[in-house]
Structure formats: structure tokens, C-alpha cells
Amino acid sequence: MTISEGAAPPDFTLKDTQGNDVGLSDFAGKHLIIYFYPKDDTPGCTKEACGFRDLNDEITGLGAAVVGISPDSQSAHQKFTDKYSLNFTLLCDPDKSVMTSYGAYGEKVMYGKKTVGVIRSTVWVGPDGKVLRHWRRVAKAADHPQKVFEALQSKLN
After folding, report:
1. What average pLDDT does the segment 97-110 reach?
2. What is the pLDDT of residues 27-79, one digit of tens each?
3. Which one of 3, 45, 125, 148 is the catalytic residue?
């Protein structure tokens, strides 16, 4: 499936670190940043998560929420959250079905080789439930949270 700006994204319900069901509908009426990442506690993913952590007060101050989604387990997410004091929700997509529906899992080029895996990407869903922006392939994980914040700030301030 292709994520199109101006269209509704695929609905989902996934488990958080506590085993609770969290769905897209839980964020109805809010701005939602959904970022997809390959694996907890790896260098790029840690930089990206810590970037969202460090900007989370500013992001929530603009009326938005951040959710990270990876194929990792609840226990891996909990360890990652505890280790880096993450202050936003991480969701588990072990079968990669939500990632696939958002175009965040599939063929990619890594170190010059074609492979299949998680495609680091982000989707911004507006309060009306429509996609406002889709960052299809995030090249620099460490810089990405700031770019997302700047996009939110320019639209919401």
C-alpha cells in the first residue's frame, strides 16, 4: 500500500510495552507522528529515539503525540524505554503487517545491496485522520526528529 498525503492512513491496533492495545483511533483529533524504525538499542535507532525523547515536551506542547513502531517484542521495547528514559509510546509489530501497510517494510538498498527489511520512515497524521506528510526514507536518523519538529512547528505555530 502507498501512503498518500491527504488520504487516511491504514488503521491499526498494536500492543505497547505493557501489553495494552493502542490504535490509530486512540489519537483521533490530535496530530500524531508515527515513526518506523528497525530495532531497539541499535546506534541509529537509539539516536532517533533519543531525539524524539529530547523534543517530546515541545512536540506535545504543539498538540502532537509521538509513537514509535518496530518489530521488537514488548520486553525489548520496555528495556529500550527504561535504558534511555523514553517518554513516548513504543508499539510492537512482530509480523510487520502494519509496517508493510505503511510502506515501512519491503525492499531497500543497504550498503549497495538489495535487501528486505524495515524502511526507516515517518508518517504525520493530522487531527482529521488524514496524512499531512510522509517521510518515505529517512537517511539520517539522528537529524530526523529535529526535522519533524520543525515541520510541526512551521505548520502549527
Report:
1. 92
2. 999 999 999 999 999 999 999 999 999 999 999 999 999 999 999 999 999 99
3. 45
Per-state percent for the chain, helix, strand, coil, to nearest 5: 35, 30, 40
Q: How far apart, in Å, are the Cα atoms of 85 and each of 26, 52, 72, 142? A: 23, 11, 17, 17
- 58 Ramachandran zone, left/alpha/beta (phi>0; psi -120 to 50): alpha
**How is 3-15 classified by DSSP, letter by letter?**
--TTSPPPP-EEE
Chain-centre distance of CA 44, in angstroms? 14
Q: What is the pLDDT of residue 148?
A: 98
Comparing C-alpha atoms, which of 105, 41, 99, 97 is closest to residue 67?
Answer: 99
The pLDDT assigned to 1 comes to: 58
Provide φ and ψ at 91, rounded to 5°. -120, 150
Active-site residue, 50 included = no
Query: What pTM, to 2 d.p., does this model score?
Result: 0.95
Q: What angle do CA 112, 50, 98 make, to 5 degrees?
A: 60
Determine the Cα–Cα distance for residues 121 and 136; give it in Å rounded to an integer.
5
